[in-house]
Protein: Erythromycin esterase family protein
Amino acid sequence: MNGTAGSHLSKIRRLFFLLPLMVAIACVSVRVQSTDVKNIDLVEHALCGKSVAMLGESPVHGFGETLEFKVELVHRLVQECHYNALFIESGMYDFVHIEALSATGRDVTDAMISSAIGGLWSNEEVQPLVPFLEEKMKTGSFVLRGLDDQIGRDSYASRGMSSDLVRYLFGDERSRCLGILQKHMGWQYSDDAPYGPTDKAKIVGCLEEIRGKLSQPEVKQQREAEEDKAMIASLERNLARNFTEDDFTKNDQEVKWDNDRDRSMYLNFKEQFSQLPRGSKVIVWAATVHLAKTLTNVNGFKGTVPFGFYIEKDFGDRAYALGFSAYSGEYAFVHQPVRQLDIAPDASLEGLAFAHNSFNEIFLSKKELQRYSSVAARPLGNRFESMRWDKVVDGLVVFRKEHAPAWLSH
Structure:
Protein backbone atom coordinates (compact mmCIF):
# COMPACT_ATOMS: atom_id res chain seq x y z
CA MET A 1 0.00 0.00 0.00
CA ASN A 2 1.35 3.48 -0.80
CA GLY A 3 2.40 6.02 1.83
CA THR A 4 -0.61 8.29 1.32
CA ALA A 5 -3.09 5.49 1.99
CA GLY A 6 -1.06 4.43 5.05
CA SER A 7 -1.20 7.99 6.36
CA HIS A 8 -4.95 8.03 5.88
CA LEU A 9 -5.34 4.82 7.84
CA SER A 10 -3.07 6.08 10.59
CA LYS A 11 -5.25 9.13 11.00
CA ILE A 12 -8.39 6.98 11.12
CA ARG A 13 -6.89 4.72 13.80
CA ARG A 14 -5.84 7.70 15.91
CA LEU A 15 -9.38 9.07 15.60
CA PHE A 16 -10.89 5.99 17.23
CA PHE A 17 -8.37 5.86 20.09
CA LEU A 18 -8.20 9.57 20.90
CA LEU A 19 -11.78 10.79 20.55
CA PRO A 20 -13.77 10.43 23.79
CA LEU A 21 -16.27 7.65 23.42
CA MET A 22 -19.20 9.63 24.75
CA VAL A 23 -18.65 13.13 23.34
CA ALA A 24 -21.58 15.39 24.17
CA ILE A 25 -23.83 12.44 25.10
CA ALA A 26 -25.47 13.02 28.46
CA CYS A 27 -27.60 9.90 28.74
CA VAL A 28 -26.55 6.30 29.25
CA SER A 29 -27.25 4.35 26.05
CA VAL A 30 -29.54 1.32 25.86
CA ARG A 31 -27.98 -1.59 24.00
CA VAL A 32 -30.38 -3.20 21.51
CA GLN A 33 -28.09 -5.05 19.12
CA SER A 34 -24.47 -6.18 19.41
CA THR A 35 -22.38 -3.56 17.60
CA ASP A 36 -19.04 -1.84 18.21
CA VAL A 37 -19.82 0.80 20.86
CA LYS A 38 -17.07 3.19 19.72
CA ASN A 39 -18.43 3.48 16.21
CA ILE A 40 -22.12 3.65 17.07
CA ASP A 41 -21.28 6.44 19.56
CA LEU A 42 -19.42 8.39 16.90
CA VAL A 43 -22.30 8.06 14.47
CA GLU A 44 -24.81 9.06 17.12
CA HIS A 45 -22.75 12.12 17.97
CA ALA A 46 -22.60 13.13 14.29
CA LEU A 47 -26.40 12.86 13.93
CA CYS A 48 -27.65 13.99 17.33
CA GLY A 49 -27.80 17.71 16.57
CA LYS A 50 -29.32 17.43 13.10
CA SER A 51 -32.94 18.02 12.05
CA VAL A 52 -33.02 15.22 9.46
CA ALA A 53 -30.98 12.02 9.90
CA MET A 54 -31.03 9.99 6.67
CA LEU A 55 -30.04 6.36 7.26
CA GLY A 56 -29.20 4.64 4.00
CA GLU A 57 -28.51 1.07 2.92
CA SER A 58 -27.78 -0.84 -0.27
CA PRO A 59 -30.64 -0.84 -2.81
CA VAL A 60 -30.47 -4.64 -2.58
CA HIS A 61 -31.97 -4.29 0.93
CA GLY A 62 -30.24 -7.51 1.94
CA PHE A 63 -27.48 -6.69 4.46
CA GLY A 64 -28.04 -7.78 8.04
CA GLU A 65 -25.18 -5.95 9.78
CA THR A 66 -26.43 -2.70 8.28
CA LEU A 67 -29.98 -3.35 9.48
CA GLU A 68 -28.88 -4.21 13.03
CA PHE A 69 -26.78 -1.06 13.19
CA LYS A 70 -29.67 1.07 11.91
CA VAL A 71 -32.13 -0.42 14.41
CA GLU A 72 -29.86 0.41 17.34
CA LEU A 73 -29.17 3.84 15.91
CA VAL A 74 -32.91 4.61 15.66
CA HIS A 75 -33.32 3.67 19.33
CA ARG A 76 -30.50 5.98 20.31
CA LEU A 77 -31.63 8.92 18.17
CA VAL A 78 -35.16 8.74 19.59
CA GLN A 79 -34.25 8.10 23.23
CA GLU A 80 -31.15 10.27 23.57
CA CYS A 81 -31.31 12.84 20.78
CA HIS A 82 -35.07 13.54 20.87
CA TYR A 83 -35.96 12.63 17.31
CA ASN A 84 -39.75 12.49 17.19
CA ALA A 85 -40.52 11.04 13.75
CA LEU A 86 -39.45 8.20 11.47
CA PHE A 87 -40.20 8.30 7.73
CA ILE A 88 -39.51 5.06 5.87
CA GLU A 89 -39.23 4.13 2.19
CA SER A 90 -42.61 2.36 2.13
CA GLY A 91 -46.05 3.34 0.87
CA MET A 92 -47.32 6.38 2.75
CA TYR A 93 -50.95 5.18 2.77
CA ASP A 94 -50.73 2.61 5.59
CA PHE A 95 -48.95 5.07 7.86
CA VAL A 96 -51.61 7.74 7.32
CA HIS A 97 -54.20 5.10 8.24
CA ILE A 98 -52.24 4.10 11.36
CA GLU A 99 -51.95 7.75 12.41
CA ALA A 100 -55.71 8.17 12.00
CA LEU A 101 -56.39 5.10 14.14
CA SER A 102 -54.01 6.31 16.82
CA ALA A 103 -55.54 9.81 16.85
CA THR A 104 -58.98 8.37 17.59
CA GLY A 105 -57.74 6.14 20.40
CA ARG A 106 -57.96 2.87 18.52
CA ASP A 107 -55.32 0.18 18.95
CA VAL A 108 -52.31 0.12 16.67
CA THR A 109 -50.74 -3.34 16.68
CA ASP A 110 -47.31 -4.70 15.86
CA ALA A 111 -48.86 -6.48 12.88
CA MET A 112 -50.17 -3.17 11.47
CA ILE A 113 -46.77 -1.54 11.80
CA SER A 114 -44.97 -4.55 10.28
CA SER A 115 -47.39 -4.56 7.35
CA ALA A 116 -46.87 -0.84 6.80
CA ILE A 117 -43.08 -1.17 6.91
CA GLY A 118 -43.39 -3.87 4.26
CA GLY A 119 -41.66 -6.99 3.03
CA LEU A 120 -38.31 -5.35 2.25
CA TRP A 121 -37.65 -5.27 5.99
CA SER A 122 -39.54 -8.39 7.08
CA ASN A 123 -36.61 -10.02 8.82
CA GLU A 124 -35.33 -10.80 12.31
CA GLU A 125 -32.88 -7.91 12.22
CA VAL A 126 -35.60 -5.25 11.90
CA GLN A 127 -38.25 -6.92 14.10
CA PRO A 128 -36.97 -5.40 17.40
CA LEU A 129 -37.80 -1.99 15.95
CA VAL A 130 -41.53 -2.74 15.61
CA PRO A 131 -42.58 -2.89 19.31
CA PHE A 132 -40.32 0.08 20.03
CA LEU A 133 -42.14 2.16 17.40
CA GLU A 134 -45.53 1.01 18.69
CA GLU A 135 -44.60 2.03 22.23
CA LYS A 136 -43.38 5.45 21.10
CA MET A 137 -46.50 6.07 19.01
CA LYS A 138 -48.71 5.37 22.01
CA THR A 139 -47.13 8.30 23.84
CA GLY A 140 -48.66 10.63 21.24
CA SER A 141 -45.37 12.46 20.77
CA PHE A 142 -43.86 10.24 18.06
CA VAL A 143 -44.89 10.05 14.40
CA LEU A 144 -44.34 7.16 12.00
CA ARG A 145 -44.87 7.86 8.28
CA GLY A 146 -44.11 6.49 4.82
CA LEU A 147 -42.41 8.22 1.89
CA ASP A 148 -43.24 6.14 -1.16
CA ASP A 149 -46.24 6.42 -3.49
CA GLN A 150 -46.25 2.71 -4.39
CA ILE A 151 -48.85 0.18 -3.18
CA GLY A 152 -47.58 -2.52 -0.85
CA ARG A 153 -48.82 -6.08 -1.18
CA ASP A 154 -51.14 -7.26 1.63
CA SER A 155 -51.29 -3.73 3.01
CA TYR A 156 -54.10 -1.41 4.06
CA ALA A 157 -53.56 0.37 0.74
CA SER A 158 -54.25 -2.83 -1.20
CA ARG A 159 -57.17 -3.98 0.97
CA GLY A 160 -59.04 -1.18 2.71
CA MET A 161 -58.05 2.20 1.27
CA SER A 162 -60.45 2.02 -1.68
CA SER A 163 -63.49 1.77 0.61
CA ASP A 164 -62.30 4.72 2.68
CA LEU A 165 -61.68 6.93 -0.34
CA VAL A 166 -65.04 6.33 -2.03
CA ARG A 167 -67.03 7.20 1.10
CA TYR A 168 -67.30 10.75 -0.26
CA LEU A 169 -69.22 9.47 -3.31
CA PHE A 170 -72.83 8.30 -3.46
CA GLY A 171 -75.03 5.75 -5.23
CA ASP A 172 -73.86 4.27 -8.51
CA GLU A 173 -70.88 6.61 -8.58
CA ARG A 174 -69.57 5.09 -5.33
CA SER A 175 -70.16 1.49 -6.44
CA ARG A 176 -68.49 2.03 -9.80
CA CYS A 177 -65.39 3.70 -8.38
CA LEU A 178 -65.11 1.17 -5.56
CA GLY A 179 -64.92 -1.63 -8.09
CA ILE A 180 -62.37 0.24 -10.22
CA LEU A 181 -60.11 1.12 -7.27
CA GLN A 182 -60.31 -2.28 -5.60
CA LYS A 183 -59.38 -4.00 -8.83
CA HIS A 184 -56.25 -1.89 -9.14
CA MET A 185 -55.14 -1.70 -5.51
CA GLY A 186 -55.52 -5.47 -5.20
CA TRP A 187 -53.99 -5.95 -8.66
CA GLN A 188 -56.90 -8.10 -9.84
CA TYR A 189 -55.72 -8.28 -13.42
CA SER A 190 -54.94 -11.35 -15.51
CA ASP A 191 -53.06 -12.36 -18.64
CA ASP A 192 -56.35 -12.30 -20.54
CA ALA A 193 -57.31 -8.90 -19.12
CA PRO A 194 -54.06 -7.08 -18.23
CA TYR A 195 -53.76 -3.62 -16.78
CA GLY A 196 -53.84 -1.04 -19.56
CA PRO A 197 -54.21 2.68 -20.31
CA THR A 198 -58.02 2.41 -20.23
CA ASP A 199 -57.87 1.10 -16.65
CA LYS A 200 -55.53 3.91 -15.70
CA ALA A 201 -57.91 6.52 -17.17
CA LYS A 202 -60.81 5.10 -15.13
CA ILE A 203 -58.78 5.18 -11.92
CA VAL A 204 -57.65 8.76 -12.50
CA GLY A 205 -61.25 9.74 -13.27
CA CYS A 206 -62.45 8.31 -9.95
CA LEU A 207 -59.70 10.05 -8.02
CA GLU A 208 -60.65 13.34 -9.65
CA GLU A 209 -64.28 12.81 -8.66
CA ILE A 210 -63.27 12.14 -5.06
CA ARG A 211 -61.02 15.21 -4.97
CA GLY A 212 -63.96 17.29 -6.18
CA LYS A 213 -66.03 16.12 -3.21
CA LEU A 214 -63.14 16.82 -0.85
CA SER A 215 -63.15 20.46 -1.98
CA GLN A 216 -66.72 21.04 -0.85
CA PRO A 217 -67.01 23.44 2.14
CA GLU A 218 -68.72 20.93 4.42
CA VAL A 219 -65.93 18.38 3.84
CA LYS A 220 -62.63 20.20 3.35
CA GLN A 221 -62.36 21.37 6.98
CA GLN A 222 -62.23 17.80 8.26
CA ARG A 223 -58.81 16.42 9.23
CA GLU A 224 -59.51 13.20 7.34
CA ALA A 225 -60.17 15.20 4.17
CA GLU A 226 -56.65 16.67 4.19
CA GLU A 227 -55.13 13.24 4.71
CA ASP A 228 -57.23 11.75 1.90
CA LYS A 229 -56.21 14.56 -0.44
CA ALA A 230 -52.57 13.81 0.31
CA MET A 231 -53.13 10.11 -0.45
CA ILE A 232 -54.90 10.93 -3.72
CA ALA A 233 -52.06 13.25 -4.79
CA SER A 234 -49.56 10.49 -4.05
CA LEU A 235 -51.62 7.93 -5.99
CA GLU A 236 -51.83 10.25 -8.97
CA ARG A 237 -48.05 10.69 -9.04
CA ASN A 238 -47.69 6.91 -8.96
CA LEU A 239 -50.18 6.47 -11.80
CA ALA A 240 -48.42 9.15 -13.86
CA ARG A 241 -45.39 6.82 -14.11
CA ASN A 242 -47.43 3.83 -15.31
CA PHE A 243 -46.47 2.60 -18.80
CA THR A 244 -43.50 4.99 -18.99
CA GLU A 245 -41.33 2.08 -17.83
CA ASP A 246 -42.37 -0.08 -20.80
CA ASP A 247 -39.36 1.09 -22.79
CA PHE A 248 -36.49 2.41 -20.69
CA THR A 249 -34.27 2.56 -23.78
CA LYS A 250 -35.91 5.71 -25.13
CA ASN A 251 -34.95 9.25 -24.18
CA ASP A 252 -33.52 8.44 -20.74
CA GLN A 253 -36.94 7.17 -19.68
CA GLU A 254 -35.53 5.10 -16.80
CA VAL A 255 -33.79 8.13 -15.30
CA LYS A 256 -36.99 10.15 -15.61
CA TRP A 257 -38.97 7.37 -13.90
CA ASP A 258 -36.48 7.26 -11.02
CA ASN A 259 -36.43 11.04 -10.71
CA ASP A 260 -40.23 11.26 -10.70
CA ARG A 261 -40.39 8.65 -7.93
CA ASP A 262 -37.79 10.43 -5.80
CA ARG A 263 -39.56 13.74 -6.38
CA SER A 264 -42.81 12.13 -5.29
CA MET A 265 -41.16 10.84 -2.11
CA TYR A 266 -39.91 14.34 -1.42
CA LEU A 267 -43.39 15.82 -1.88
CA ASN A 268 -44.79 13.22 0.52
CA PHE A 269 -42.05 14.10 3.00
CA LYS A 270 -42.70 17.82 2.64
CA GLU A 271 -46.45 17.45 3.12
CA GLN A 272 -46.09 15.27 6.20
CA PHE A 273 -43.19 17.21 7.71
CA SER A 274 -45.32 20.36 7.57
CA GLN A 275 -47.78 18.68 9.94
CA LEU A 276 -45.16 18.05 12.63
CA PRO A 277 -44.61 20.38 15.60
CA ARG A 278 -42.12 23.18 15.16
CA GLY A 279 -38.57 22.02 15.85
CA SER A 280 -39.26 18.37 15.01
CA LYS A 281 -36.38 16.02 14.21
CA VAL A 282 -36.94 13.31 11.60
CA ILE A 283 -35.17 10.03 10.88
CA VAL A 284 -35.43 8.90 7.25
CA TRP A 285 -34.91 5.17 6.54
CA ALA A 286 -34.32 4.34 2.86
CA ALA A 287 -31.79 3.13 0.30
CA THR A 288 -28.70 5.31 -0.10
CA VAL A 289 -29.47 5.79 -3.81
CA HIS A 290 -32.47 7.83 -2.65
CA LEU A 291 -30.82 9.61 0.28
CA ALA A 292 -27.64 10.65 -1.53
CA LYS A 293 -27.01 14.39 -1.68
CA THR A 294 -26.00 14.11 -5.31
CA LEU A 295 -25.38 11.34 -7.85
CA THR A 296 -24.37 13.62 -10.70
CA ASN A 297 -20.83 12.29 -11.21
CA VAL A 298 -21.45 8.67 -10.23
CA ASN A 299 -21.14 6.26 -13.16
CA GLY A 300 -24.54 4.81 -14.06
CA PHE A 301 -26.51 7.63 -12.42
CA LYS A 302 -26.16 10.41 -14.99
CA GLY A 303 -29.11 12.78 -14.76
CA THR A 304 -30.42 11.28 -11.50
CA VAL A 305 -31.85 13.70 -8.94
CA PRO A 306 -32.30 11.81 -5.65
CA PHE A 307 -34.60 12.56 -2.72
CA GLY A 308 -31.58 13.62 -0.67
CA PHE A 309 -30.84 16.46 -3.10
CA TYR A 310 -34.11 18.15 -2.14
CA ILE A 311 -33.55 17.54 1.57
CA GLU A 312 -30.09 19.10 1.48
CA LYS A 313 -31.51 22.05 -0.46
CA ASP A 314 -34.18 22.59 2.24
CA PHE A 315 -32.15 21.82 5.36
CA GLY A 316 -28.51 22.42 4.42
CA ASP A 317 -26.10 21.21 7.11
CA ARG A 318 -29.06 20.43 9.39
CA ALA A 319 -29.48 17.24 7.33
CA TYR A 320 -27.08 14.31 7.39
CA ALA A 321 -26.85 11.42 4.90
CA LEU A 322 -25.31 8.23 6.33
CA GLY A 323 -24.22 5.46 3.97
CA PHE A 324 -23.16 1.85 4.55
CA SER A 325 -20.78 -0.54 2.84
CA ALA A 326 -18.81 -3.74 3.52
CA TYR A 327 -15.40 -5.23 2.86
CA SER A 328 -16.71 -8.82 2.51
CA GLY A 329 -19.48 -11.19 3.60
CA GLU A 330 -22.87 -12.37 2.41
CA TYR A 331 -26.19 -10.81 1.45
CA ALA A 332 -29.66 -11.89 0.37
CA PHE A 333 -32.54 -10.04 -1.23
CA VAL A 334 -36.05 -10.81 0.08
CA HIS A 335 -36.40 -14.62 0.31
CA GLN A 336 -33.69 -15.09 -2.32
CA PRO A 337 -30.66 -17.41 -2.00
CA VAL A 338 -27.72 -16.15 0.03
CA ARG A 339 -24.98 -14.72 -2.18
CA GLN A 340 -21.32 -14.01 -1.52
CA LEU A 341 -20.13 -10.43 -1.55
CA ASP A 342 -16.90 -10.04 -3.51
CA ILE A 343 -13.96 -9.16 -1.25
CA ALA A 344 -13.12 -5.49 -1.73
CA PRO A 345 -9.94 -4.74 -3.71
CA ASP A 346 -6.97 -3.45 -1.68
CA ALA A 347 -7.12 -0.06 -3.42
CA SER A 348 -10.85 0.44 -2.75
CA LEU A 349 -12.18 2.57 0.09
CA GLU A 350 -13.31 -0.59 1.90
CA GLY A 351 -9.94 -2.29 1.34
CA LEU A 352 -7.95 0.70 2.58
CA ALA A 353 -10.18 1.07 5.65
CA PHE A 354 -9.37 -2.44 6.91
CA ALA A 355 -5.78 -2.78 5.67
CA HIS A 356 -4.02 -2.49 9.05
CA ASN A 357 -6.55 -2.99 11.84
CA SER A 358 -8.81 -5.61 13.39
CA PHE A 359 -11.98 -3.54 13.77
CA ASN A 360 -15.33 -5.13 12.90
CA GLU A 361 -16.59 -1.82 11.53
CA ILE A 362 -15.28 1.65 10.85
CA PHE A 363 -17.06 5.00 10.71
CA LEU A 364 -15.63 7.45 8.20
CA SER A 365 -16.73 11.02 8.84
CA LYS A 366 -17.08 13.57 6.08
CA LYS A 367 -13.57 14.87 6.81
CA GLU A 368 -12.16 11.36 6.54
CA LEU A 369 -13.98 10.79 3.25
CA GLN A 370 -12.59 14.08 1.94
CA ARG A 371 -9.04 12.88 2.64
CA TYR A 372 -9.52 9.89 0.39
CA SER A 373 -10.46 12.13 -2.55
CA SER A 374 -11.79 10.03 -5.46
CA VAL A 375 -11.64 6.31 -4.75
CA ALA A 376 -13.57 3.16 -5.75
CA ALA A 377 -16.28 2.05 -3.28
CA ARG A 378 -19.72 0.38 -3.26
CA PRO A 379 -22.11 2.17 -0.87
CA LEU A 380 -24.69 2.35 -3.71
CA GLY A 381 -24.86 -1.38 -4.46
CA ASN A 382 -22.56 -4.30 -5.23
CA ARG A 383 -20.58 -2.57 -7.97
CA PHE A 384 -17.47 -0.50 -7.24
CA GLU A 385 -17.49 3.03 -8.61
CA SER A 386 -14.90 5.78 -8.24
CA MET A 387 -16.26 8.98 -6.73
CA ARG A 388 -15.68 11.76 -4.25
CA TRP A 389 -17.87 10.00 -1.70
CA ASP A 390 -18.02 13.01 0.62
CA LYS A 391 -20.16 14.61 -2.10
CA VAL A 392 -22.62 11.70 -1.99
CA VAL A 393 -22.91 11.11 1.78
CA ASP A 394 -21.85 12.91 4.94
CA GLY A 395 -20.53 9.76 6.61
CA LEU A 396 -20.01 6.08 5.87
CA VAL A 397 -20.10 3.00 8.09
CA VAL A 398 -18.04 0.13 6.63
CA PHE A 399 -18.34 -3.41 8.00
CA ARG A 400 -15.54 -5.92 7.80
CA LYS A 401 -17.99 -8.76 7.16
CA GLU A 402 -21.69 -8.47 6.30
CA HIS A 403 -24.27 -11.20 6.84
CA ALA A 404 -27.53 -12.00 5.07
CA PRO A 405 -30.74 -11.09 6.95
CA ALA A 406 -32.87 -13.86 8.45
CA TRP A 407 -36.06 -13.40 6.45
CA LEU A 408 -39.33 -14.17 8.20
CA SER A 409 -41.59 -16.81 6.68
CA HIS A 410 -45.15 -15.85 5.70
